[in-house]
Design brief:
Helix content is 45%, strand content 13%. It contains 18 helices and 14 strands.
Length: 438
């Protein structure tokens, strides 16, 4: 295939040379003429192990494909190409947002070129951008400049890269993820033909593809900071941090797993809050600042506050809560986040007089709540079907519904807010009145 690479920086150089190695003819477009000149002479603007050797092999025509580099797009060359891969920089602005100027200018150039060809062409964005950028900014630029329609006359995809400096050549062939956001099956085929990588391609929504890099890198940074704070605490208490890490990492059921990593509602119970308070006291005793670990409880409280705000925004008077425990299949209400929500709502005068808050849970839980003076004004029941029928807004919490109750939920006309404790049937999730909390 014949492919254009816009931007010969770190990602662009790696992608261009690896695509040439696997047999594609690549034209690299780089506005900085010095980079183009150096590339032609076998010099790279970056250092990456193995990349210079690959460049020299390419220049000596030992690779299956061919590489050319230019500082200005050649229209006739563009007309012969199958697709363009955009790898230009999106540096940070002072606000922290990314600077889209270079990316927008590149898309404008591609759009103008698209207006001059009748051939289908796939435009693949690899530059890191915020969710919504491709559909709200980049595609409109392409359509305005080309006079054509994305998905009908040309393809657009967002294909995030997962290249780690130092092992980028390996990561190209064996990426940790292979994710494409697009709306056209033709674009999927283009990526599959262009990138013969050892990882199954996963097609997702464009916004998901844009977001995954932020989620990944934030989590990786979180892990580094967490390990360093725990290691610092270990050292201060004469604990071998390496031995602790070996034990910690050996737990693949919870610690190194997908457990606890699906968005839902806040944590509670007898363990997490108590242990977080305890470890914060350990840091305090040694005079160690631990903003990450000390911020966990604050983050959890903020999540609880968000649900309170969402509920307050609903213009209804009858609100039903399916469950009040801190997690499913227990009668334990200690530090339950839902009870914190209910306690906060009951302090608001309008909820004391004009609103009806009803909780459905097991007889064990109902008995406990009846004894708590904080919740004397709550309506309590053990019949989920009755709760569903009598509510205008439902908060789907940790109460496990029977098949009969799920049928009642499917017929429910009011607004549903799902805290995602359980997987629900598609007939419920596809309802217009169904909403996830996060």
């Amino acid at each position: 295939m014949k492919v254009n690479i816009f931007g010969l920086g770190y990602v662009g150089n790696v992608v261009a040379l690896k695509l040439v190695e696997v047999g594609h003819d690549v034209t690299g477009i780089e506005l900085v003429s010095r980079k183009v000149k150096d590339l032609k002479q076998g010099r790279l603007s970056i250092f990456e192990p193995g990349l210079e050797e690959l460049l020299l092999s390419t220049l000596k025509k030992k690779t299956r494909g061919k590489l050319s580099a230019v500082s200005k797009l050649d229209l006739e060359d563009f007309k012969k190409s199958d697709g363009s891969i955009v790898c230009v920089g999106t540096p940070s602005l002072s606000s922290g947002e990314v600077d889209l100027n270079q990316l927008a200018a590149t898309l404008k150039t591609i759009g103008q070129a698209l207006s001059k060809t009748s051939r289908w062409h796939d435009v693949i964005i690899r530059s890191t951008v915020a969710p919504g950028t491709t559909q709200e900014i980049l595609i409109p630029i392409l359509e305005a400049e080309s006079g054509k329609k994305a998905g009908e006359d040309f393809g657009v995809g967002f294909y995030p890269e997962f290249l780690r400096e130092g092992i980028a050549l390996k990561d190209f062939s064996f990426p940790s993820l292979n994710v494409l956001g697009c709306d056209s099956p033709r674009t999927v085929k283009f990526i599959q033909k262009t990138f013969p990588v050892n990882k199954k391609l996963r097609r997702v929504a464009i916004r998901t593809a844009e977001m995954i890099k932020y989620a990944n890198n934030s989590f990786h940074a979180l892990k580094v900071s967490f390990a360093n704070e725990i290691g610092t605490l270990c050292k201060s208490y004469n604990v071998d941090s390496e031995e602790l890490a070996d034990v910690f990492l050996s737990d693949t059921a919870l610690n190194v797993s997908s457990y606890y990593l699906r968005p839902g509602f806040a944590f509670g119970g007898s363990c997490f809050p108590k242990e977080l308070r305890a470890i914060s006291s350990l840091f305090l005793r040694k005079g160690i600042k631990a903003p990450l670990i000390n911020g966990i409880a604050l983050s959890n409280d903020e999540h609880i506050s968000r649900l309170i705000s969402v509920i307050q925004a609903q213009q209804v008077s009858k609100i039903g809560f399916l469950g009040a425990t801190f997690k499913p299949d227990t009668d334990d209400v200690r530090e339950s986040p839902l009870l914190k929500v209910l306690a906060s709502l009951l302090k608001i005068s309008s909820y004391q007089k004009a609103k009806v808050l009803t909780v459905c849970d097991s007889a064990f839980v109902v008995k406990k709540l009846k004894k708590d003076k904080t919740f004397q004004s709550l309506k309590l029941c053990t019949n989920p079907s009755a709760l569903i029928k009598g509510s205008q807004l439902l908060i789907l919490g940790p109460y496990r519904l029977s098949a009969k109750a799920l049928q009642g939920l499917a017929a429910f006309k009011g607004r549903i807010i799902d805290l995602k404790y359980f997987s629900l049937p598609k007939e419920i999730k596809n309802k217009q009145n169904y909403n996830t909390f996060c």
